[in-house]
Amino acid sequence: MVNVKKKRVNTSYFVILLTFLTLLSCKTHKNNIYEVDGKRININEQYISDSNIENFIAPYRKHINNDLDSILAFNPVTQEKSKGKWQTNIGNLFAETTIALSNPIFKKRENKEIDFCLLNHGGIRSIIPEGNITSRTAFEIMPFENSVMIVGLSADEVRTLAAYFLKEKKPHPLAGLTIYTDSSETNVIDILVNNKHIEDSKTYYVATTDYLANGGDNMNFFRDSKIKFDLDYKLRNLFIDYFKKIDTLPNITTERVIIK
Amino acid sequence: MERRDFLQKTVASSALLSLGGMSLSSFSTLETKKITILHTNDVHSHIDPFPADHPRNPNMGGAARRASIIDQIRKEEKSVILLDAGDIFQGTPYFNYYGGELEFKLMSMMQYDLATMGNHDFDNGIDGFHAQLGHANFDFVSANYDFKNTILDGIVKPYKIINRDGIKIGVFGLGVELDGLVDKKLYKETIYNNPIEVAKSITRTLKEDKKCDLVICLSHIGFKYRNEPERVCDITLAQQTKDIDLIIGGHTHTFLDKPVLEKNLEGKEVLINQVGCFGINLGRIDFYLSDDTKYDNTTRNIILG
Q: Which of A19, B56, B84, B101 is least surrounded by Cβ atoms within 10 Å, i.e. has the fewest?
């Protein structure tokens, strides 16, 4: 008995010692951040290009440039969105081209006709300078991936759209619709769709973009409509197809808002 | 008899444990380590440099130049981590023609480690993004996009832990609210969760469970919204969380001259950096770490600019 007790005392010390050592050995293992050094490196011509990367990019660049720079049409008059109060030549071109190329698809798929087109002024991203037209032109005027949507509107909703147009005082691209106002330029007096008075019972099919159809630029009349057809046709591709079809770009000056 | 047996076993196992402990670390010398973080954001398919006559960014940017700068730093530093904070896609015809293939291939050649998803990375739809992933030799992380019911389920993970030179670096991703910014038909069933709530839970995992030495957030939620002070951004993320060491931001195309410091929930400094857009700048943050206990309760020395 005595023997056993003595042994127990010895081992207890040993356990305490080992436990202490174990704890001590873990203590130094944590890594602390003691200094941070942050800066910005501007990438400019003082750095040489990595030739591996440069050679890898080259064939992609060549293919794109060949494609983008081949001449598709000619533009005799500079088209720009900053010249015009209620309409601009480039806006008219946007809207009329959208109807012309979307209508055959809509007719084939849904057996219906597009009545008019409303896009947004902010969506025109560049001028079209006088001179040759290439695919690059289409990328410049329409860099985004937006596609054509057809939205069905009632006669009342078309009236709301006309009121919105006057209130906005922006030359949003418009085709197929004529708004008559008085000298106040705020009251809608009359609306013609393709030179015909609007009929209360009719549904009007309006070409626009998916961005506006989902309520972009506060075009809530589009957002709230339950009748929508996605043509899955990118606006940029539509312009490229159009430039390929024609030789010379028209300069369209049709007035869409008429003051009586 | 039973009691004695127990004691003997305890002694034996304690001895074994401490021997293991000693051989691992107790008598090793103190070590200093350096981790170099390089980062880009919102490159937007800008593969070529801007032309010399560009009004804003003449002769700036370019993937081939960025590659040579990164290469040089890799030669000088032992532990380099290369990150991107999203919006790799969209901005030049390279994207429209090749759908992101070239962007991913070049980033793989530069040996990017990790990226997060920006809203424009959905521009060809979640399927268009998925189709290009085969060209990427690096991973994507996003913690607040729930991809459970999408094609990216199990592919884009909330975080990744990178081990360099014995240092554990936890990197998680955060994305911007998609509703109103990206068409639903593009992001499909992706669910957006509150970035701050998600960050709180992820940082706990990375710091407490996974014992990361360094926690980095790759964020595409935006640096700050002056006209919408309530909107979640990198500044509020830093203020309302803890244990994040560095936020690498994107989305707002913010050109910071140098990283910004913000105090977190515990009053500790969080670094926030964003380097503008279009591959014009490369961000560089060097972290110095030591296992010396004298740094246990000291504040870190931060040198900026």
A: B56
